[in-house]
Amino acid sequence: MSDARRQPVESAAVTGESRDRASLTVIEPTVTREDVDSSGCVGAVAYPYRIYDAVATIERPLLSNRDVEYVVSVDRSRRLAVRADVFPETVTDTVDDVLVVPSELSDAQVRDKAEDAVFTWTLRKVAVGSAPELTFERSVDAHKLFWIASRPDGDVIVDSVRGTEMPLTD
Question: For the ranges 14-28, 55-69, 121-135, which has the lowest average pLDDT?
């Protein structure tokens, strides 16, 4: 696509608020801050998510309706919806020395992202004659924690749920 036809993209600058201590609803970590191997202090970053338990109902002639279930996780900072395996357990926790990333999406925009994702996933899975009916059984607003760890060979970011880590680069 030529530059002349490209639509302007809204900036997604991450200018979160660093806090000494914050009480947050978080997706329960499998890797705690104390579990992270570090040669210095371990900082925290909290990303905002809304997770939906969704059902797409497909009408079928001569047969009963078919329900297809999804768990949709909308990253409210990076503005994207992804499929999740399970609806996560959440806990309210006080997190010390944390950078809380702000949400870039309104509640309506988050719901639109989730609806678009469920609709697309359903069309990829099932041949439908009409638009599926979408319902959201439950939802939760929660933050996912990432640990920033100092290491002799460079800083890394550790996903508190999956335990994966990636080097931080400039």
Answer: 14-28
Residue count of the chain, please give it.
170
If DSSP codes are grouped into helix, strand and coil, which group holds residue 143?
Answer: strand
Average pLDDT over residues 12-16: 46
Cα→Cα distances 31→14, 28, 43, 165, Å: 24, 9, 13, 11
Contact (CB, 8 A) for 145 and 26? yes
Q: Write down the pLDDT at residue 144.
A: 95
Q: Tell me the CA distances in angstroms from 86 to 6, 41, 62, 113, 141, one per residue in order.
A: 37, 32, 32, 19, 15
Please list the alpha-helical segments (H only) found in 9-143.
107-125
Predicted local distance difference test score (pLDDT) of residue 61: 83
Amino acid found at 12? A
Residue (of 36, 30, 48) closest to 160 by Cα position: 30
Tokens at 92, concatenated: 């309210």
Number of H helices, E strands in the chain: 1, 8
Rounded to 5°, angle at Cα 101 from 148 and 169 = 40
pLDDT in tens, 123-167: 898 877 788 899 999 999 999 999 999 888 888 999 999 999 999
Model-level pTM? 0.79
